[in-house]
Amino acid sequence: MRTISKLFLLAIIALVAGSAAFAQSAPPATGPNLTIGLVMVGPYNDHGWSQANYEGVQYVLAKLPGTKLVYIDKANSADRPGTTVSQLGESLVAQGAKLVIFSSDDMTDEAIKFAQDHPNIFVILTSGSQQWKEGKNYLPLPNMINIMGKMEYMKMVAGVAAAMTTKTGKIGFLGPLINDETRRLAASAYLGARYAWVNYLKKDPSKLTFKVTWIGFWFNIPGVTSDPTQVADDFFNSGFDVVISGIDTTEAVAEAAKYTAQGKQVWAIPYDYARAIDEGKGVSLGVPYFNWGPAYLNAAKAAMNGTWKNHFEWNDPDWKNINNPDTSAVGFNKGTLSKEASAAVDKFIGELGKGLNLWVGPLNYQDGSVFLKKGEKATDQQIWYLPQLLQGMEGQSVSK
Amino acid sequence: MRDTRANRLLFQIGAVLFALLVTVLVLFLAGAQPFAAYKYIVLGALGSWDVVTNVLVSWVPLLLATSGLLVTFTVGLWNIGIEGQITLGAVFTTWAMRLLQDSGWNPTLILVLALLAGILGGTLWALLAGVLRTFGGVNEIFGGLGLNFVATALNIWLIFGPWKRPGVASMSGTLPFDRALWMPIAAGSSRLTPATLVMAVVGIIAVYAMIEGTYFGLRLKAVGKNPKAAYILGIPTWQNMMASFAICGVFAGLAGAVQVTAVYHRLIPSISSGYGYLGLMVALLVGYRASLAAPVALFFAALNVGSIQLPIILKLDSSLAGVLQGTLVLFVMLGNGIRARLIKKGT
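^ Those are the sequences you sent over. The predicted structure of the assembly is below.
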């Protein structure tokens, strides 16, 4: 009887060890054909975040023979009530997807559930940090990769463009929801604006107003979020003449165009998608955008040839040409800039490329506490998980 | 025309055919292939065990909401406020889970208490609509609508405020509960929870038995048919109305609790998923007959889940399922109206 119990115990241990070993390996290589499933939080043609992701996968299809795309957009509980994001991912698997891209940090919980439930499917959680060994939320999942571009640089460029353009010294930031990512991007825009204000325009930094207003999500959901059109209007009606958008859609540009057409010259800077400036000709100063293609291409190749390894990547721009579609993870597409502003933007990009770092002390958090002492450089973790806005910025740092 | 079972069936079949025809027309106008659309909806709802389980997951809260509404419809009340009652059920469930999640208590006990809290939340919110109706003279449709807005606002305030994730304010909701506090999932499925299936089935059977087989059900019907006559015959009107609100609130609260413990595992802004309004359509479509509620709710759930295939395969909007559901209800009601007129003329 005792022997049987021992054998039973050994069998259980073997089973557990076996499943643990299985859980520690990446899915098998797919070979020459790969169907990519893409789950987008907004419409695939939103001229913002979702469209940038969609075109990122289109780039893969063009570069990598044997790849196919199936996608579902508007994957959020307001647009698709009663569904969950992991369920939508499974719908793509049913259509043959072996690599599923969950293209929003907002899908984190469901993407993790999906990756755990489907260890044989490759998973990309865009803009997440769960596979970052040095990150705060490290949760090793062998089938998952996190990808993000260093948008912080391009938000700084946007800040420079805004500071060089504003006549009132008041810059608005139309923020989405409040989290680590959005705080650090808003702070980056502020750092760029302040740098240009002080170093290029030689003005007093206390005379620069930089205000962040959050709407509550990446795009407008009537009755749930604040209306971004209304928020943009509030900025323009209260003396702000440049609005930098941090949301996925283009309301800020549309409103800037409306106000300018009515005789009040204002400007806006959209976000995410390279062609987002097309909507606001004459009022759009440029757009900081993501170029997901190269990173998605590498991930697709890894899934096909068996070199997949879970990891986190935070990809740099190509400083030789930030708008190179094959090499740069982020870029800045210049719009309607004055000659002086355009030159300042070019100069700033050049300085960044040569190693200019604006995440250097002295820098304080918004509440006055010390973030970085004089000369101290922020670590990647300090930037990624920025807990507050910076001193000099107006607006909420955390949700109240 | 005489009121026979045969011509009632004929009118209902006619309504279904008209609804299908209208949807086909909509698809043609959208430049899509109608038959391909229907094919993919069917495959998306029945094509594999995975999608069948998704249909069942959607069926549970829908059937619970419909069960509750059958009770309020029996007494002649339009409980539009059910959306808010589901939401409050979810809020109370989340509240209980947050209080107990670190208590070290047995997870099953925590889940049971959370479900009971959800039931309490739904019931209280329904009773509030009842009080407004009975003592405040506020029609339950307007009172219910108002309370729905209040419930949504309360829910969003909690998610973006006191119950927010550390440092984060997001539409994606509160932090998910630990897996140990998820309603147990059936082997071989990603999300089917047998316990909730049992709740929904027992619930609709209980409502059927109550309405069709008890004295209480008879009293509800009497009040529903003619409140004044019922009152004169000694049936307390407002007490029965309040009781029906409370019973509907129990089911709605349970639906909200299921959404939190078995579907989303957290509180999200649109936690009711529109099951209250969809439940109203199911109840209308079945003519308030509990015996038909389960299959029709299953059909609606299948349409919702199956229609996800439309954007994936045909690049069509999945709201087509809503068009079909809406037209179906409209034509059935229209058919009933025409039939009643013809019968009246014939007598």
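The longest strand of chain A covers residues 34-39. Chain A touches chain B at residues 70-74, 76-78, 80-84, 86-88, 90-92, 94-95, 106-109, 113, 117, 177-180, 214, 216-217, 221, 223-225, 387, 398-400 (CB under 8 Å).

Shout if you want it in another format.
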